[in-house]
Amino acid sequence: MLSRVADSLYWMSRYFERADHCARVLEANYNLMLNPSKLSTEERWQRIMTSLGIPASADGIDPQIAMNELTSDPENESSIVSCIAESRENAGQVREQISSEMWERLNRLYHHVTGANSKPETDSDPLRLLAAVREGSYQFHGVTDATMNHGEGWQFIQLGKYMERCCALPVLLDAYFSAAGDADDLDWVGLLASCAAFESYCKVYTADLKPDSMAEFLVLNPEFPYSVRYGVERISAAIAAISETSFTHATSRIERIAGRLRSSLAYVQIGEIMTGGLHRYLNSVIEQCNSLHAAVHVVYIDYPIPSALGA
Amino acid sequence: MPAQSADRPMPAPFSEYEIDAAYDEMFRSRGRPRPQYRNLYSHLLNLPSEELHRSKREADLSFFNQGITFTVYGRAEGTEQIFPHDLLPRIVTSSEWAVIERGLTQRITALNLFLADVYHEGRILKDRIIPGEIIYTCKHFRRQMHGVKVPRGVYVSVVGTDLIRLPDGRFVVLEDNLRVPSGVSYMLTSRKVMKQIFPTLFRKCGVRPIEQYSQALLSTLRSLAPEGRSTIVLLTPGIYNSAYFEHAFLARQMGIELVEGRDLVVHDNTVYMRTTSGLQRVDVIYRRVDDDFVDPLAFRADSSLGVAGLFNAYRAGNVVLANALGTGVADDKAIYSYVPKIIRYYLGEDPIVENVETLLMTERAQRQQVCDNMEKYVVKAVGESGGYGMLIGPHSSREQQAEFREKILADPRNYIAQPTLTLSTAPCFMNGRIEPRHVDLRPYVLYGEKITMVPGGLTRVALRKGSLVVNSSQGGGSKDTWVLQN
User: Fold this and answer.
1) Are residues A222 and A307 in the same domain?
2) Is it the case that residue A58 has pLDDT exceeding 70?
């Protein structure tokens, strides 16, 4: 497969996941904001920003403006609209490599979110947009799995999706757990809802919202799609499949990083993580994901010419 | 059959069908279809009128779903449009086709010898058959190609020649497209759609197949590859190019990679493509990028579509480009007027398919003739294609004529003129009726180890009543072309 094509598929998928994640976090919090809390509205918005990895601004936050910036502001490169536009732009570059159903879903979602007026008229407009993104995302993922060959290209799509998820989840978790002392049950519900995890969590731990249990669930659960461990397992699987289909032999570094990351999640208990500091642990996950991303890029996409020629 | 007789009345779907001075593909005269059209004629007479509408809708939907579109330049961000398609086939008899096939084979053979000569000894210039300055002032002449050896001596591997039919029924060549001719994907997709719509008619008529085009193109490209090496790619300018659909279509049909300039690297005069399995050597490039843009080091430095160093790799014989560079010198509209001489010079034969009379604006007398009678001529810029940069005398205003007169006087080498020709007409399903529209015919010729033509081509239609412009960028459409078995 052409490196450019693999790269476009990877970024199509990463940007799509980024939009999806942002929509889920906003939707969960927007609902909760309707309830009173000991945190001020501004403090709660501050946490939303932090949990999406957006640096805190010195000026105060106006909820209306913040919501707009994060959803439909094309000037803001991390807004949902911008991420979907980027995803579509990448898909457009490789339109004949993805199925026409995938293109159609993505295109439809793009027109939906860009067509929605950037100045929402009523309170419920942003909510509708967020719901549409979530719907669109489930459809896109379903159609991707159902209509595309699960070959190398599909594996790059998986890699992009879970790489993005494993980079975003630790940031979200860190934002909540670093202020765990002040959090009430409602805040924790917000965290779980941000990961579409509330029902799944309750099935394992009942509705007993203990920070350690939630950390265990969202970091270490091997079966829940929005846990860090699940994501890393999918990344490893995609990397193994890609390395099998391509004939590059320089993959040992990638496999080493992936293997180390994977075992750091598989053979650890939540107690050890909490003792050593969750913040430090999450940061190290992000760092390892970043070096994995860089290693994949340099082996498959942008390798130096002389080394590729064996010179 | 009665001998020559008066016109007959035209039955229902043809009641508005007018036959004028143009050669009509379907009717010899009113009510008298030519033999090759009889099956279609009776099929149409027996069809409930709603049925044609339904078929038209089905066909359009099928084109839409397949995303068969082209881009029109000059409007906001290059608008993408569905390629207009007419439902009724244009039918060519086997004997007519035989002449076209022999004529185009002869023409391509001669033009190819001409290119080899121009870029090597230049005998034809020394023998004063063609004035040297007309070659060297051609904007598509590539001096860098001088002395470069091309595999099998084949410069033009893919040709799309535009033929028109004169009122006397003869096919003549209007234009040779020797650079990066396009449109073949419309020929192939339109056939697929037509088979779904007219299955019985297909069986009855005995239509020769064209589906083997992609395989024929692939073998043509393979035959140019060096012994034992056969990685072939299609080089596209990218998704914003007007023919991107076709590039993706052909690459998929042939099972070869569709690459952009940024996917290729040249190292040590060898071309590679960047894949997830490392660098893979490329042997033949079917390039759909114009000469000017293939290599910023050799040609236009501002090109971002090409590959730096490609020309050196090509000159070193490490990669094959199809078509070769510099072939545009042979489809220049001024050099076109010399093609009959070129055929006689290299082959010692008379042209089987003739040229359209062409006046060179560099010749004083001819220029005077045109400038004094602008309303009678079609004036064309020599290096343009796609119907851009052209004046149709009879349909132009005084201002436009004056403007072109000035352009001609300022740069005579850049213009030629041809008498206004009446293209033949063919029946088209328009506004719920069957009406005649002007058409041309672009068959495709492949040249590798041997010359191959699939029996058919792209029949382009001037959709506007009375219009003679068939280019898709100027409101033209297409219809399927059926070459009959016998």
Assistant:
1) yes
2) no
**Residues of A with Cβ-Cβ distance to B260 under 8 angstroms:** 4
CB contact under 8 A, A303 and B278: yes
| Residue B298 near residue B145, CB atoms below 8 Å | no
- Which residues of chain B lie closer than 8 angstroms to A301, CB-CB? 274, 276
B276 interaction partners in chain A (CB closer than 8 Å): 1-3, 6, 152, 242, 246, 248, 300-301
Residues in B closer than 8 angstroms to A95, CB to CB, are 239, 248
Any idea which fold B357-419 has?
Dna Ligase; domain 1 (3.30.1490)
Chain B residues with beta carbon closer than 8 angstroms to that of A246: 275-278
Closest Cα of chain A to B214: distance in Å?
18
Helix (H) or strand (E) holding B373: none
Look-up of token digits 């970024």? A11
Cβ atoms B231, B222 nearer than 8 A: no
The pLDDT value recorded for residue A310 is 64
pLDDT of residue A114 exceeding 90: no
As a whole number of angstroms, the distance between CA B8 and CA A27 comes to: 74
| A306 neighbourhood in chain B, CB within 8 Å | 267
The residues near B120 (Cβ < 8 Å, ≥ 6 apart) are: B146, B147
Looking at A100, A115, A148, the residue that finishes a domain is A148
B308 in contact with chain A, both atoms CB, cutoff 8 A:
no
Alpha helices in B348-462 (DSSP H): 364-372, 398-410
Which of B248, B274, B276 has the CB atom closest to A96's CB atom?
B248
Joined together, the tokens standing for residue B56 give 């038209």
> How many domains are contained in chain A?
2
Q: Do B277 and A92 touch (CB under 8 A)?
A: no
Q: Do A62 and A108 belong to one domain?
A: yes
DSSP letters for A106-168: HHHHHHHHHHS-SS-SSTHHHHHHHHHHHHHHHHHHHHHHHHS-SSHHHHHHHHHHHHHHHHH
Q: Minimal Cα–Cα distance from A84 to chain B, Å?
A: 19
Sequence-separated (6 or more) residues with CB below 8 Å from residue B4: none
My answer on whether A96 and A140 are in the same domain is yes
At B177, phi and psi to the nearest 5? Answer: -110, 100
| Euclidean distance between CA atoms B88 and B86, whole angstroms | 6
Q: What is residue A121's predicted lDDT score, i.e. its pLDDT?
A: 66
ipTM (interface pTM): 0.83
Least CB–CB distance from B276: residue in A6, A93, A305: A6
Which of A103, A124, A148 is a domain's end point? A148
Task: Write the CB contacts of B46 (distance below 8 Å, at least 6 apart in sequence).
Answer: none
- Determine contact: B164 vs chain A, CB below 8 A: no
Claim to verify: residue A136 and residue A169 sit in the same structural domain: no
Q: Does A100 touch chain B (CB under 8 A)?
A: yes
The CATH number of B95-193+208-347, from 1.20.1290.10, 3.40.50.11290, 1.10.10.1020, 3.40.1280.10, is 3.40.50.11290
Confidence of residue B70 (pLDDT cuts 50, 70, 90): low
pTM: 0.86
Looking at the complex, report in whole angstroms how far the Cα of residue A7 sits from the nearest Cα belonging to chain B: 10
